[in-house]
Design goal:
This protein is of the alpha+beta class and 244 residues long. The protein contains five helices and 19 strands. The protein has a single domain, classed as Mitochondrial biogenesis AIM24 (Double-stranded beta-helix). A six-stranded antiparallel beta sheet has the order 5-6-3-10-13-8, with no helix packed on it. The longest helix has 10 residues. The protein is globular.
Length: 244
């Protein structure tokens, strides 16, 4: 399997497949493909794992793509402005990612749910208590808003991060949510009530922009719906004439 990621902040990953190779993806993420690519919706991993994905915010069925009669290609993109990151999954290298981060993966990668282990993370994490686990063997692609920031934490090294900015981490990384200290900081700091603490060893992945922050930044510029009750050409004329 070969792949190429194109674009800056509206990225697309194009995957070239040999005959017999397969990738699967979240439903609706395919952008374009060669004519010889065959698609098939599957409850990947069986009924129980499909139900688990549904609880994690993914679709029950995943779409599988495979070429017929030679090489083929298929491209995927996320549902919001952002970037795509490939993750090498292998024996002993598993990743935990926030729900909705998964985009697509080779057939040998297993997508399953992972539950939060700490009470603080469960009740205050902002993402619920279900995460996604990427295991097995192959390449998986994740998507998030803004740009990715990757860090390798050493044994015992830790970092505190805005909860929504955490995309994923290696399974060896310890993860918890902590309350911001100080009443004044909580109410007037503007950074939310909780911070995520990530403790090494292992790789962590952060994002520079969250979908929530993007929506909040755009909301003042979005048009509001007219409520005059008029419609058509005459309605538009009267609204403009009356200064509405």
């Amino acid at each position: 399997m070969k792949y190429k990621i194109t674009g800056d902040n509206l990225q697309i990953v194009t995957i070239e497949l040999e005959e017999g190779e397969r990738v699967y993806a979240e439903a609706g993420s395919m952008i374009y493909m060669s004519p010889n690519i065959k698609m098939e919706a599957k409850a990947k991993g069986g009924l129980l794992k499909a139900i688990g994905r549904k609880f994690a915010g993914e679709t029950f069925f995943m779409t599988e793509f495979m070429p017929a009669g030679g090489k083929g290609f298929v491209s995927f993109a996320g549902n919001a402005p952002g970037t795509i990151l490939p993750l090498e999954i292998d024996a002993g290298i598993e990743y935990i990612v926030q729900k909705d981060a998964f985009l697509c993966a080779q057939d040998g990668v297993e997508l399953s749910i992972a539950f939060q282990k700490r009470l603080g993370a469960i009740f205050f994490g902002g993402e619920g208590f279900i995460l996604e686990r990427l295991s097995g063997r192959g390449i998986a692609f994740i998507h998030a808003c803004g740009d990715f920031i990757e860090m390798d934490l050493k044994e015992g090294e830790s970092i505190k991060v805005d909860t929504g900015s955490v995309v994923g981490w290696e399974a060896s990384v310890d993860y918890d949510i902590q309350l911001v200290k100080g009443i004044k900081t909580i109410f007037f700091g503007g950074e939310g009530l909780f911070l995520t603490t990530l403790k090494g060893p292992g790789k962590i992945i952060l994002q520079s922009m969250t979908l929530h922050n993007l929506a909040m930044a755009l909301s003042p510029f979005l048009p509001t719906q007219q409520t005059s009750g008029r419609s058509g050409v005459l309605g538009t004329f009267f609204d403009e004439t009356l200064g509405r």
